[in-house]
Structure formats: structure tokens, C-alpha cells
Amino acid sequence: MAKKPSIGRQKIKIAKIEIKNHLQVTFSKRRSGLFKKASELCTLCGVEISIIVFSPAGKVFSFGHPNVDSIVDQFLGRNPPPNSTTHHLIDAHRKASVQDLNSQLTQVLNELEAGRKRGETLDHMRKLASQRKYWWEKPIDELGLNELEQLRDSIEVLKKNVTNQTDKLSVEGNVNLSPFFSVSEWLIRLRSNPIR
């Protein structure tokens, strides 16, 4: 004889069950399965767990390892477990995280302060540079010996260049060497024949 195939496990729709009797039965089955899985997790991993569940009828069910009260007190911070290595590890981790964050904050604040000081120094240097004139723009009375010698040499080079250019232009016949023509005529002639 052939066996009749069973329906087996079927996927259920995740929605609130409307029928009260079915709701209570499903709650009881799921609650016991949840507590069983929590117990296995405690045994396999050595963790502390507390579960509190309210039934549809308003009854309270709880599971806790080692017990619910100690876990709730520990969670609320009222009563830390005495000499618990896990608690010490958690505190050490928190302190290390806080110390690490504080050192990072201090480093960032120091970098920010150094950047601000650098910016102030650059602003001060820009301000000084804008106030300073080039040495050749200063009044002659304020120039030192070295600066005066440089100015004299520059003027002599300029004088030589102007003399050479006027000689060159006079030979070419393009320029009237009369000292009485206007500045605008000089500029026009210099633009057309630049000094090199």
C-alpha cells in the first residue's frame, strides 16, 4: 500500500490572528519555543538572558539566566554583578572607547588650533606685504646705501638703453631728435619701435 503524502509544514501569513482561541494556542507554542532557544543560547554561549512576555490575556511570563531580577537590575544599572568578568570587560571596553575618543578629540582640537594660528600668521604676513612698498617706491631719504647703489645702477642701465634706442632710431631716420615734441609722440614712437 502507498502512503498518503502529508501536507507537512506550511508557510503561514505573518499577521495578527483574529480568532481568540487560535491566538492563545499559538502564543503558548511560540513562547515555549522562544524560551527553549534562549536556554540553548545561554548554555552554548554562556550569556546572560532575560525575556519578559505578556500574553494576550495579560499574564506575565518570564525567562532569565541566571535569573530575571539580576539581569533587569544590571540592565537598569541599579545593581551591577559583583566580580563579574563580563561586567569588568564591558566597563574596560567603555573606558577604552571613551579614552580613545577623548584622545582623538584632543588631537583634532590641536590640529584645528594649529591651523587657526597658521591662518592668523598668513593674514598678518599678507597685511604686512600689502603695507610694504617695493624699495624703489620708497622716498630716496629712506633708502639705504645698498638700495641707492642698486637704484643708480638701474638708472644707468636705463639711460644706456634709451641712448642706444635714440641713436638707432636717428640712424634709421624715423625720429626727429628735437627735444620739443610731446610725450604722446614719444609714446607712439616707442610703441611702434620698442626698446629691447
From TrEMBL:
One GO term describing the cellular component: nucleus
Keyword list, A-Z: DNA-binding, Nucleus, Transcription, Transcription regulation
GO terms for MF: DNA-binding transcription factor activity, RNA polymerase II-specific; protein dimerization activity; RNA polymerase II cis-regulatory region sequence-specific DNA binding
Domain MADS-box: 7-67
Subcellular location(s) of the protein: Nucleus
Name of the protein this chain belongs to: MADS-box domain-containing protein
